[in-house]
Design goal:
By secondary structure, this protein is an all-alpha fold. Helix content is 69%, strand content 0%.
Length: 58
């Protein structure tokens, strides 16, 4: 679960900067965020990790 333990501020940050309330954008962002979490061995999303995920969006 990517977003269950995320800080609400980080979720709002992700929506404002990348997802814009769009389901397809959230799905793509979630996939990249899961990859980033796995690669970095992190348990929680943060803004640094989200910025990396944003850079992978098409």
């Amino acid at each position: 679960m990517v977003w269950a333990d995320a800080d609400p501020g980080d979720i709002a940050f992700a929506d404002q900067h990348a997802a814009h309330g769009n389901f397809r954008a959230w799905a793509q962002l979630t996939a990249h965020t899961r990859t980033a979490l796995a690669r970095n061995g992190r348990a929680r999303v943060d803004q640094e990790l989200l910025r990396w995920a944003f850079s992978r969006l098409t």
